Structure formats: structure tokens, C-alpha cells
């Protein structure tokens, strides 16, 4: 890929709002700095001009349960758009997908509408063994029979200062052999995978690493399911501007306040407001609103959410999506970048 474009992406990446939000269990947090980019826009190139296109009225904010075991409280996030050079990079990635996957990839021109960003600044930073097989990812990879079976993910490595003598590893699990296969993460290297188990272990005792930024480009599906997916990514990769808090969960707010303090210090400027808006709610109130809005949503002939996703979709997401569907979803907004 073009070295000038990649340098612009590096420069751009140092300006995005990095954070270390609370994890799903109170007291935990991701062992690295994170960010997410994407607001429901798709990237289009018309002649030589690049646009972010989005249906009018698409929600600007998303919400998600505060913690895994505290779903009656929720955090609210302002979504952010994919910046200029990262958008240009996505167009290049689509070209590579067409070349690499051929007919085994579908809907490539709408691929990669969300970017999950990881910033490894310490040797101890890592990502644990997991699969990216969430229900809200669009299946755009076909099997031999032509059936959509997985969601293509592109993973880019960028070293910020120098290329280290000892490279970090990205490991993919081989289901057939039952072994982990190591991939050395060179500067500007690109790995494609889908719902494979994968991990990035911390650097060992052999030597210090260099700062590494990893972008993983993914594709969220349409509809309320995709909006819930945005909520998930923002919950675990950003910090909220507002919290709807069940009065029984007031003591959990401190975890977000601590994360905001750390993140602003890491960025060396005040990016996240430390005065989070708080709205006191009750479990019964939330449940009643959600049940009413879900019935209204289904009455419009829209697809119900999968069983395991329903508890993760707040009444705010239902309400925002219903308003979007009824008022603005027929018109396209184009923003030149």
C-alpha cells in the first residue's frame, strides 16, 4: 500500500480519542488502550471524490448496558465518523479483498463500516483468546457452496516510533491441527481472517517492544441489530457522555470516572468530559418502556432481534431506530471528506 497514505493514517491515529474503559465486569478494564470509529456511514468513491454516505435520520448516539450483570443501567455514547485517511485506506482494503477472495466475498463495496483500534504502549498489553463472531457482524464471506458463513476482518499493524527488534505476534488457531499459528507483525502488515480464534500475547522478557497501533476493520449489518452492534463497540472501546443509572447501581459510576481521568491523562488533554450526565431510572420503568417500544418496532414489520441480543438493546436504541425508520431512512446524506 502507498507509504504516504499509511503515514497519514499513523498521524491521524495519534489524534483519535484513546481510552481504557471499564470492562464488562466492574473493576476490570482492557489491557491496552482502545478506540472505535464509525457512525453508520458507508464510504463511497464517486469519480475522484470520497464521500461518507448515510441515510438521513440514522441515530447519532447509541447506548448499551453499563455492565454485564447490571442491564437496568445503561451508558450512552456519541458515535464518531471514520476520518479522512482511514476512509481512503478502507477503499484500498476493499480492492485487496476483491483480489484475495474473488467470488467468495460479497457486498465488498459496503465492507468495513466500523474500525476497532488498539494501541499497545506497554510490553504487558495484550488481547486474550477470542472469536469475532458476534451476531451483528455481516456475513460477507461465502463457503464452497456459496453460503454466507463468516464476516471478513482486516487487521493492520502500524509501529509508531521504530520497528522493534522483537516483533509482536498475532496468533490464529488452526482448528484442523489444534495448534496456534504465529504471525509476526511487521510494520504496515495486513492480516485477513474471519471468525477464527485469535490472540495477541504480551511481549516476553527477551526485549522491549515499540508502540504498536492495530486497526481491525469490520462490517456491521443493517437494522437495529447493527445499531446494537455499534452500541457494543462503543461500550467497550469508548467512554459515555451520559449514564442512565438504576439507583441501586450508583457506586458503579466511579469506574467510569476513573477511566475518564486515566484516558484524559493518556491523551494529554481533556477529550472526555469528567462531568458525566446522570439520569436516575428504575428497573421497572426501563422494562416497561422497552416492552412497549419493542411491540411498536415489531408492528412495523421489522425483524426481531436474536434471543441473546435482546437484553443488550436498550429502549433508547429501540426508540431512536423507530424514529429513523419512520422519518428519514429513505434519504441519503453525502459528506465529502
Automatic annotation (TrEMBL):
Residues 111-221 form the Fe2OG dioxygenase domain. InterPro entries: AlkB-like_sf, Oxoglu/Fe-dep_dioxygenase_dom. SUPFAM superfamilies: Clavaminate synthase-like. This is Fe2OG dioxygenase domain-containing protein.
Amino acid at each position: 500500500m502507498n507509504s504516504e497514505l499509511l503515514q497519514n493514517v499513523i498521524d491521524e491515529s495519534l489524534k483519535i480519542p484513546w481510552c481504557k474503559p471499564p470492562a464488562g465486569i466492574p473493576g476490570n478494564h482492557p489491557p491496552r488502550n482502545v478506540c472505535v470509529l464509525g457512525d453508520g456511514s458507508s464510504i463511497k468513491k464517486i469519480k475522484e471524490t470520497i464521500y461518507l454516505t448515510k441515510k438521513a435520520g440514522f441515530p447519532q448516539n447509541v447506548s448499551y448496558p453499563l455492565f454485564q450483570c447490571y442491564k437496568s443501567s445503561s451508558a450512552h455514547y456519541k458515535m464518531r465518523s471514520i476520518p479522512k485517511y482511514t476512509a481512503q485506506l478502507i477503499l484500498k482494503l476493499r480492492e485487496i479483498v476483491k483480489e484475495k477472495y474473488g467470488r467468495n466475498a460479497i457486498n465488498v463495496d459496503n465492507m468495513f463500516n466500523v474500525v476497532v483500534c488498539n494501541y499497545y504502549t506497554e510490553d504487558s498489553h495484550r488481547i486474550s483468546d477470542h472469536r469475532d463472531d458476534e451476531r451483528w457482524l455481516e456475513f460477507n464471506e461465502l463457503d464452497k457452496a456459496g453460503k454466507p458463513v463468516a464476516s471478513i476482518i482486516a487487521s493492520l499493524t502500524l509501529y509508531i516510533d521504530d520497528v522493534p527488534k522483537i516483533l509482536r505476534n498475532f496468533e490464529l488457531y488452526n482448528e484442523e491441527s489444534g495448534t496456534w499459528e504465529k504471525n509476526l507483525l511487521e510494520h504496515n502488515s495486513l492480516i485477513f481472517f474471519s471468525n477464527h480464534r485469535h490472540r495477541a500475547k504480551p511481549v516476553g522478557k527477551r526485549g522491549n517492544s515499540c508502540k504498536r497501533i492495530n486497526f481491525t476493520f469490520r462490517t456491521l449489518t443493517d437494522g437495529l441489530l447493527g445499531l446494537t452492534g455499534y452500541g457494543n463497540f462503543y461500550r467497550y472501546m469508548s467512554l459515555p457522555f451520559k449514564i442512565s443509572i438504576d439507583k441501586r447501581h450508583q457506586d458503579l459510576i466511579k469506574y467510569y470516572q476513573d477511566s475518564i481521568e486515566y484516558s484524559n491523562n493518556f491523551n494529554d488533554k481533556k477529550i472526555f468530559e469528567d462531568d458525566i450526565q446522570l439520569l436516575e431510572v428504575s428497573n421497572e420503568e426501563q422494562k416497561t418502556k422497552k416492552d412497549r417500544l419493542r411491540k411498536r418496532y415489531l408492528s412495523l414489520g421489522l425483524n426481531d432481534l436474536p434471543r441473546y441480543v435482546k437484553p443488550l438493546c436498550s429502549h433508547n436504541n429501540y426508540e431512536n431506530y423507530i424514529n429513523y425508520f419512520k422519518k428519514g431512512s429513505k434519504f441519503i446524506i453525502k459528506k465529502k471528506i
